[in-house]
Every structure is written in structure tokens, then in C-alpha cells.
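Practice problem 4.
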């Protein structure tokens, strides 16, 4: 395969099928972003990255109940997918926004843009290895919180709605304990709504906490927090 970076995506999806994830599909009001933030040139991806990172920085331990994270590096590193054009093909590359909670939307957007401009050839060193070795490497990474955060980030963010007006809800396969997927948006009665999918690791997070988390995040998107 010429662009073997896609093999790593397939490996991650294959392993993600074994995760005990729960999915919440919901529409959230994003009128505040459309009217107040977007006119300044801030992309939806950068805005979502900033808001979710700062919210999680204060609530991550609470919503997961993960005692093993205490006294460890609790920086919120967000894995995002950045499309690049290689040999005429659009290929998504994983990129990690380090310590995103301490950065503004402008800084996050500039960081993503800088990575997008970096030239790639569509390959990854691991992509040349047999599938069982690639997946073994991923399992080793997943077994360690430190390695997982280093190579995969703390959480995952995907914004398909930024490239499609009709994608509806997104149902991602992810290795992350928490993933936010933004789908398409539409105007209803003078307000703007976007379809979101919240993905939680049910081994760490109870359903009730997931629901409260979504309610609180809506308040942030409304500009109330």
C-alpha cells in the first residue's frame, strides 16, 4: 500500500471494537459560536478543542472516577484528525494538541494549520510491519496510561461536520476513553444546532455522569460558563 498510514487507522478501528463504549447522540445549541466566535475566523474544530479541553481539565477525574490518574500528568492532550493532500489523495493524519486546556482557540487553530502545511508522503514507519506486529504495538501502548497519552492523547475529537453539511450523526470507532464527534449542523427557528456524538468508556464512566457531562457542556457552548 503506497499510503500505508491508513493501515494504522484500520488497526485502531479493529482494536476499538473490543472497547466497552457507550454512545450518546444529541443535538446541541451552537448559536453562540455561529454568532460570536465564527465571525472572528475561528474554526469549529479549534473552538470545540478549546472548550472541551478546559472543561475536562476541571472535571476529568470526577467524570471517570479513575483513581489511578491521581498524582499523574493530567494534561488534556487532544487527538484530532487533520486532512492532508498527498499525491492527489486526501489522507487523514492523527495529530495531538498537547496541553490544550492552556491554549486559546487561536493558538490551537494556528497549531493545526501548521501541521496541515507540513509535507507528508502518506507513509508511517509502523505501516511497513505485518498487521499482527502493528496491532501488538498498539496493545502495548493501550496497556500503559503514559504511553497512551503520549501516542494517542487523553481524548479524541473529530469534526466531520466541518467538511460535510449532510453527514448527520457520526459513530466513531475510537481507542480513547472519551471521544467527541461533531456531525452536521442546521438552523432551526433562528437558532443553530449541531449533531454531536459523545463516546465514553463505560468501564470508567457511569451513564448518569455521562448525561450530566453533556448537560454541563451545553452550558459552555451557550457561553454561560
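Answer key:
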Amino acid at each position: 500500500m503506497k499510503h500505508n498510514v491508513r493501515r494504522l487507522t484500520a488497526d485502531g478501528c479493529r482494536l476499538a471494537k473490543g472497547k466497552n463504549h457507550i454512545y450518546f447522540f444529541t443535538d446541541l445549541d451552537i448559536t453562540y459560536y455561529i454568532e460570536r466566535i465564527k465571525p472572528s475566523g475561528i474554526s469549529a474544530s479549534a473552538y470545540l478543542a478549546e472548550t472541551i479541553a478546559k472543561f475536562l481539565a476541571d472535571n476529568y477525574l470526577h467524570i471517570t472516577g479513575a483513581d489511578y490518574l491521581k498524582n499523574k500528568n493530567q494534561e488534556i492532550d487532544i487527538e484530532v484528525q487533520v486532512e492532508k493532500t498527498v499525491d492527489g489523495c486526501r489522507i487523514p493524519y492523527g495529530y495531538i494538541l498537547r496541553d490544550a486546556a492552556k491554549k486559546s482557540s487561536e493558538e490551537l487553530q494556528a497549531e493545526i494549520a501548521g501541521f496541515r502545511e507540513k509535507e507528508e508522503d502518506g507513509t508511517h514507519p509502523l505501516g511497513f510491519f505485518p498487521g499482527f506486529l502493528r496491532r501488538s504495538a498498539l496493545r502495548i501502548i493501550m496497556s500503559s496510561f503514559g504511553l497512551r497519552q503520549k501516542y494517542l492523547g487523553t481524548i479524541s475529537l473529530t469534526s466531520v461536520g466541518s467538511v460535510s453539511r449532510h453527514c448527520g450523526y457520526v459513530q466513531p470507532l475510537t481507542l480513547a476513553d472519551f471521544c467527541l464527534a461533531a456531525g452536521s449542523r442546521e438552523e432551526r427557528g433562528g437558532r443553530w444546532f449541531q449533531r454531536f456524538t459523545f463516546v465514553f468508556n463505560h468501564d470508567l464512566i457511569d451513564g448518569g455522569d455521562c448525561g450530566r457531562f453533556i448537560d454541563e457542556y451545553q452550558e459552555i457552548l451557550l457561553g454561560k460558563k
